[in-house]
Write a structure and sequence with these properties.
Layout lengths: L1 H40 L4 H41 L6 H24 L2 H7 L4
Helix pairs in contact: 1-2, 1-3, 2-3
GO molecular function, one term: beta-tubulin binding
Protein name: Tubulin-specific chaperone A
InterPro entries: TBCA, TBCA_sf
Amino acid sequence: MADTLKNLKIKTSSCKRIAKELASYQKEVEREYSKTTEMKANNADPYDLKQQENVLAESRMMIPDSYKRLEHALIELKGALDELDKDIIKEGPEVKDAQEVITEVELMLLKNECKQDDPKVDEAQQVKG
């Protein structure tokens, strides 16, 4: 039973960490997109602009990977929580924390799915104007 609780704590922490990473990458993409747009508006040196576009592209590539890792971590966390239900442990701070993380991550994933359907996001995700 102690191993099951320990496993739940690990899965919960992992889910939290990956969610923070995803949010961080999303902010980085927004920041780099703004910088790229500003450089285009100011007619920056083509070489510098190309380098900035590469930075933006690299930042953008991290989002799908983080998204997939978060989905996987969420599945594992739910599995660990189900395992606890089998062991008749349905209350406690670890269980409550895991349930809160599951709710937050599901909401975060839902918001990201909505953003992917947004035409403004499609425009923002293009490397070149």
